[in-house]
């Protein structure tokens, strides 16, 4: 076969993969947004079948051979070569699994999600525990097929964040613990900030009106983006011009919808801004979960919680909720939304205590996969960890072990990327502030200037480079966790008027 023939076969195959992926992505979005629960069993069965069809396409022996040749072919263009490398890596991780087992696992993931949803609504961990146990056992078996030198949890960490493993995460979390635990303790002893302005009654209809304005400010365009509502906000996409996000409205919590909207638009903008020539192929995705979270958390925490952002948006918010916010100034509002208080729910955590929520999940996952911990009684272990690290204990399973969806479908190794992403974001923002006047852009209704910087330095590359290379390209240096820790220390020392005790 000539190189041209191989490329033709490869391109036809990429198109078929993208068609099945699009269908499965839409089915997934539908399941999590509007599909009635009564039809779940029927849909789950067929979704698993379609996943099996995609499995067959992805693991076609002829295509694996072609990918194996293209990935090392110096004569073809670098983007095709890079894509072939990534497709080949994925195919090798999949082809070792017997198809029936792969399909059965897809079915289990769907059933486990349904069980989690129902257990959460009933506040009963025992309804979910058997599924969790089965998901963990099956994941161990599936990863075992790879015959990798790496241990199973390291492989999972590497899947979500290529290049990461327990050793590196242990060092990362140790650095976080060393500087954040004392800071959290200092903040706990300081005079608390008044957050009461955020927890009054805010009519959902009015929140919706404001969200419309917020989406426009963020340059989230209906031409390529769509926002829906779900209990757990998420973002998914089929191509650069079809990015779906969701948000959540809570009547007595004004910032829930605001922060989840800004966060998810961060994910969607990343996907939208990848170079259009990568559309429909593996290069169109964010290179790693940490890099994706860095973009959503950059939007949410570094821009969306800042004073200049609210100098532009607060007048309308205040007008929309005039009785509730009449006597609350913009600075008071921003201080309230940044206040730090240890809580039970990760998605509602402030920036400072957030990494502790992740640390707890990371330590539990490590123990679950090393065999030192079982799913029986895991809810109590969870609560003990919260008491140890955050000094709080849940009364309801829905606010403790059942709060997150990730374990239901077996996404172990994902959580640490949230903390890593927050830290990546600090380094991107520091560089962005050297290049452009971020505060002025936010105040002047020019959020697009921040987006343009990110597009140029991060987004457009998609998967063309690994995360550490993108960090170097964008900021000129390797990742440095101290930039993140300095940022948190400066921000919370200022916010709480803490004295430097060094
Ligand atoms: Zn996210």
Describe this structure in words.
There is one protein chain. Strand 2 (235-239) and strand 3 form a beta hairpin. The model has no long low-confidence stretch (mean pLDDT 95). With 502 residues, this protein is mainly alpha-helical. Helix 5 runs antiparallel to helix 6, helix 8 (166-189) packs antiparallel against helix 15 and helix 9 (204-217) runs antiparallel to helix 12. A three-stranded mixed beta sheet has the order 1-3-2, with helices on both faces. 64% of the residues lie in helices and 3% in strands. The longest helix has 31 residues, at 3-33. The protein contains 21 helices and three strands. It has helices spanning 3-33, 40-58, 61-70, 78-95, 99-122, 129-144, 152-160, 166-189, 204-217, 254-273, 289-303, 307-320, 322-325, 330-338, 354-370, 378-390, 415-435, 438-443, 447-457, 467-475, 481-495; strands at residues 225-229, 235-239, 242-247. The radius of gyration is 23 Å and the shape is globular. It binds zinc ion. Residues 263, 267, 293, 296 line the site of zinc ion (ZN).
